[in-house]
Amino acid sequence: MPDNKLNSDTRERILDVAERQFMAHGYDATSMRMITGAAGVNLAAVNYHFGAKEELLREVFRRRLAWLNKERLIVLDALEQQASGEPLKPSQVLEAFFGTLLHIGEDEALGGMTFLRLLGRTLTDPSAFISAFFASEYAEVIERYKQALIRSLPDVPRAEIVWRLHFMLGAMSYAIAGTDILHVITGVEMSDYAGQEPGGKSEAMKLSQRLMPFLLGGLRAPLPNFSASSAQNGLLPAGAKREGEEVKKQ
Amino acid sequence: MPDNKLNSDTRERILDVAERQFMAHGYDATSMRMITGAAGVNLAAVNYHFGAKEELLREVFRRRLAWLNKERLIVLDALEQQASGEPLKPSQVLEAFFGTLLHIGEDEALGGMTFLRLLGRTLTDPSAFISAFFASEYAEVIERYKQALIRSLPDVPRAEIVWRLHFMLGAMSYAIAGTDILHVITGVEMSDYAGQEPGGKSEAMKLSQRLMPFLLGGLRAPLPNFSASSAQNGLLPAGAKREGEEVKKQ
DNA sequence: TCAAGGTTCAAACGTTCGTTTAATTTTATG
DNA sequence: CATAAAATTAAACGAACGTTTGAACCTTGA
To answer: Is A91 in the B-facing interface, judged by CB distances under 8 Å?
Structure first.
């Protein structure tokens, strides 16, 4: 009756099932009875092992993000040591940040595409305790990578870099969430949602190879020109406007 | 006791309040009693006017998306007629699609930043009835703009264009959702969340001027090179890999 | 072997949820 | 003004929610 591929340990089994259910239905729409039922454990097991539902969600993320953000710091440290004081290339910074993330999608032991989708969908959740948790969990990594990006693009204003880091996180988040208006409409393959078969590997790799050039192109795009005319109609030709200073570097 | 700036008509007042509450707390975490209480109407009013909670959410989106997607088709029609058979420039297509959207953020009568944030946050909601609704509501517009993009980039494979359209939707969605890990950590100004003061105008404009160059840069980035070595360690230098063919055009 | 601590269990807790009902008030129409 | 339709109201519905309880069960070490 319980889900397949379940861990023998009750605690881990709850985490595995909760991860999948939160991904498929969202936090609020996933009840304790759905989780414990699918995990084949007693209803009270969640409260016994984790205290409350909120703490269960935090633990679902904690066990994955702990590895991810530690790995991100290790990779960045290695890159910076290897560069011996010189600024990194933007492509190196992006590869380190997003490459480590997308690596999770290729490794079921790290959460696989299930966790990636959960992460992408939860990053935009307005719930107070969720955003507070992410803020504290991501603080150090974001700060380190922000500084690395600022050093790698000395001619781009700091505020602009923060904006583009924001855009990049969004493109990545939405891409791995896989909730596609596009997928339903277009006949293109894209993701296949399942994630348990070995095909998950190539899926995450394809995503990585598609996403990285896009992010680099966006990061290195010309800066906006704020001196140009303010609003615009939307009915006008609209082309060839707001060109700006070019960003150099690789 | 009820919210300020409320419409005199009960039906519209419910829609206004629901829009704000769904944005602030999400669909599941917003109860009928929260909505009717803040709107100063009877609990049964929602069921009387809309039938059910799901239908209320659909109507909240419908009254805004009706204008948006109609406007998008009008603008695209005008551009294509003006081009008289020639393919549009990618920048024109993006300006038409995302410019009309971000215009909503500048006009409180169209929903303002409140609706933009709600839209951004709901686009990644896994709930079945929500994604089904968006799929049908967006079908025509997405198909038309996809075709326009394909025509504007004849040397880029269709699948690649769909991927990048996906990435662009993500960057936009996340940016307007404004649930920022970054905002909490960095001291940069960015959005100011409130949305009722006239400052909302410049906020949406700034966002538009920052987002558009990023999207164009990502769309026109070099194509990924699939013949290169497959996975990669994550601990290696990681730089200067996977460069590829350049995409031309403006 | 037996006490102790960790774990699982069925059952119930009080609360909140979305929805429905039936009576009442308001509005519009002849 | 009378009457039908539309709208609003207070109250209650059953269902589902997260959590708690206290007894039963299993494991472990002296």
So the answer is: yes
A24 neighbourhood in chain B, CB within 8 Å: 126
For residue B208, give the nearest of B107, B61, B80, B58 by alpha carbon. B107
Q: Which of B77, B97, B145, B185 to mutate to test the interface with A (most CBs of A within 10 A)?
A: B185
Fold of A1-51: Arc Repressor Mutant, subunit A (1.10.10)
Residue A241 burial (10 A CB sphere; 0-12, 13-18, 19+): middle
Q: What is the dihedral of CA B173, B179, B183, B185, to 10 degrees?
A: -130
Cβ of B248 under 8 Å from any chain A Cβ? no
Where exactly are the structural domains of chain B?
A: 1-51, 62-219
Name the CATH topology of B62-219.
Tetracycline Repressor; domain 2 (1.10.357)
Positions of strand C less than 7 angstroms from a protein CB: 7-12, 16-22
ipTM, interface predicted TM-score of the complex: 0.85
The architecture that CATH gives domain A58-219 is: Orthogonal Bundle (1.10)
d(CA B167, CA B96): 17
Digit-by-digit pLDDT tens for chain B (250 residues) are: 333 334 559 999 999 999 999 999 999 999 999 999 999 999 999 999 999 999 999 999 999 999 999 999 999 999 999 999 999 999 999 999 999 999 999 999 999 999 999 999 999 888 989 999 999 999 999 999 999 999 999 999 998 999 999 999 999 998 888 755 555 445 444 443 333 344 444 667 778 889 999 999 999 999 987 665 444 433 333 333 333 344 544 4
